[in-house]
Design brief:
Shape: globular
Protein name: ABM domain-containing protein
Helix content: 25-40%
Radius of gyration: 14 Å
Pfam family, one: Monooxy_af470-like
CATH class: Alpha Beta
CATH topology: Alpha-Beta Plaits
Number of strands: 4
InterPro entries: Dimeric_a/b-barrel, Monooxy_af470
Oligomer: single chain
Largest sheet: 4 strands, antiparallel
Length: about 110
């Protein structure tokens, strides 16, 4: 499993951003190997983390080829003050107590 952590400092979101963001999420959900996402908001700032879960690196690469995703990446300065992407291969997960909230999200 692979995690893509998208850390962002939001800027100004307009209607075009929201439309493109919805299209990108739909493309992710339609990509074979997409497992879900989780979002966290920092309590002390507007910074957010969005973690996307992928079955394989090939699935992630397939999503990365999406035209809307590429277009958004080229226009990030219009909507974000800053961003950082970290791609991580998960070796193992374990725990107890999260029940239906366990990762990856379903």
């Amino acid at each position: 499993m692979y995690l893509v952590t998208f850390r962002l400092a939001p800027g100004e979101y307009d209607a075009e951003f929201r439309e493109l963001n919805d299209a990108i999420q739909m493309a992710a959900e339609e990509t074979e190997g997409y497992l879900g996402k989780r979002t966290w908001q920092a309590a002390e700032s507007e910074e957010a983390l969005v973690v996307y879960y992928w079955e394989s690196l090939d699935a992630l690469k397939s999503f990365g080829a999406d035209a809307d995703h590429k277009r958004a990446k080229n226009r990030w300065t219009e909507w974000y003050d800053a961003y950082e992407v970290t791609i991580t291969e998960v070796i193992r997960t374990y725990g107890n107590g999260f029940g239906n909230d366990a990762d990856p999200p379903t």
